[in-house]
Amino acid sequence: MDDDQTNRSLAQTSLWVLRIALLVRALGVGASYLWHPMERESDIYGTMYFEWGWPESTSLAIENAGMWLVVIGAIVIVLANRNKRDLTPFRLAIVIVLANRNKRDLTPFRLVAILMLAFIVFWEIAMASGLAYRGGKFMSQWALGSHGLRIAVPAALLLHTLGFGAKAILRVLYVGAITTFLVHGAQAWFGSPVFITMIIATLQSYFDCTIDQSQVEQILKFIGAMDFCVVAAILLLARSRSGVLRKLMLGTLLWMAFWGLVTAVGRTTGASLGAYPETLLRIVHLGGPLVLYVEWVRHQSTGSSVAQPNPEVQHHLPCEQPKLT
Amino acid sequence: MRTTKTYLIFLRFFFCFFLASVAAPVQADVEEDTRPRNVRVVWLRNPSTTATLIWDTVKPTTDNSVRIQQHGAEEARTHKARWNESYSYADKENVDLNYHRVLIDGLLPSTRYDVEFESDGQKSRRLYFVTAPDDNRSMTFLFGGDSRSDQRARRSVNEMMAELVTEAQATEDPADDIVGLIHAGDYVATGTSLKQWSRWLGDHELTTAEDGRLLPIIPARGNHDRGRLFNEAFGFKIKDQHNWYGVSFGTFLRVSVLNTEASVAGRQAKWLDQELATNRATHRWLVAQYHRPAYAATKWPSSALIHWVPLFEKHNVDLVCEGDGHTIKRTVPIRNGKQDPTGIVYVGEGGLGVPPRQPKPKRWYLQSPGMCGSGHHVQRLKFEEDTLTYEVVLLGGKIGDRWEKKK
Questions:
Q1: Considering only CB atoms, which chain A residues are within 8 Å of B360?
Q2: ipTM metric
Q3: Chain A interface includes B152 (CB < 8 A)
Q4: How is chain A split into domains, by residue range?
Q5: Residue B27 CB coordination number (10 Å)
Q6: CATH 3.60.21.10 fits B139-406, yes or no
């Protein structure tokens, strides 16, 4: 990341990747915790009910309200960022509720987006913290790290909506990607039983290949090492200026996106199609690195001298009229 | 001068009195610190002829032994504890606790053994346990899980279990006799907290009947029982990460204990296939128990659904006992993912001392003739020649559910 990124905004492609990742993850949240026949409760409910001794009905009500807000929030983010602003009844309702005529820069849509995104970030942190606090899963004490991209994707969109430049946004995404790969790498290295089961089941079901557990454990060591290498590569290459190293960085980011997708899909292939919410929940592992990749390519193609402000950000800058295209 | 002397005499007297008053409790504390406590019998192998006896002391002790005597016999044997170690993670919470373990074999089936535990001269009260039968007689077990986070409820359920043992002994039908406790895991909230384990082990003593009868335990590892303390508490090898095993009661019953915290595929699935194939041919009743449920009453199904359920169906397991959900559940008989009269019934979900949850009754497998509910409870399994009787005993003694399976 160079200094010229400070004032530059993310590319439209990147923003859409982030929004779609957020939406797909939100649908995964909805399926997992609200409408799937096997819907369950998160560690937010678990913390309130089991650890803090709140009434079960209260804990459930808060949990369900939070999950619905995440789903609705993600839908609003996608709707509210459409360029063509036709007045649907839904939009009209938001305008009536939240219109603020005194501050022209703070449009109702933007205000809603900020509130929704702030809540989603808070909720993601709460889910990860609940898991870390309650334990009960392999290396769950590091859940804030393994959930890095789940937190970073809405956080990146929040920063964008607040008018922050690409540098800050990308930093958040990098931190999320690094912690996600670091903790998942550690889980693989130390032989996560879930990963072992996932690999064995996927190979059996889709490739008709029976593999010994000890071989899977070796493969996991390799995967863990790969994840550590990815983290090391990002830390070392992020500021590189040499052509070869930049290409290596490009490859690393592409690998992260690919691996994020593979491991997300593995959650379903390692169980059954009914486990599709597990994949949706992890689609941010594709989305986050993909944005980093797109921005890296863009940065390379534009060079350090070009810093085109994004029209979408322009209307977020204080005391300026929104410029809608 | 005389005043000074009187003063000194008074001071000496006061000092001696002070020392005496301080020394007495110190002596009492030392005795308390080496007193055998948290006594338990664990069945990991052949329960008709072997037993693992474990007890704890607060302070490390050098001379630890069990005096064991067949009830009514004159001869008694003394077994020195071969494993005397401090529990792991003791430094983390500044807790002192040491375990002492004896593995006794060569016991006679269906026999009462009186036992007395001794550590550095401090003795436990006289207790006893009864070895499992091996002559295919009918027998009864208690089953439950999840005793991790509501200590008051845990203590109440433990006391109820002791009462159930006493009541069963008093009936005329020997088949009512409660042989042991099958525990599906989640003993504590944080598996690496010795403080929590210490409380659990102390509370487990409440399952001991009034007359001193110990209730042997067949433990499974739960998702909250991570770390070494589970192994140390129940006599597994310290670094054992498998914790899957089978216990036979003659050729009448085989209890296969599985570990959902290890990979459910791979080695464990292979072992299970072999275990069930071998024992289906030789045992009348086959029961499997583990922590995370395949047919969950509140949660997402565990991977056991994919990797173990087909094996249960292949080998026609008679009953599957699960924990984790903090509810009461009994599924409809299930085969190939559908209700089927020839299918397998899954019971349990755990209520030995946790805040109970409301189940999700809309799940197809919990609907009638299955059931689900909520409350602190233990489940009673009575195995007879042709009938398996399952009952849910709620805290207070009320029967919450009853079901029979005919051979």
A1: 39
A2: 0.87
A3: no
A4: 3-314
A5: 9
A6: yes
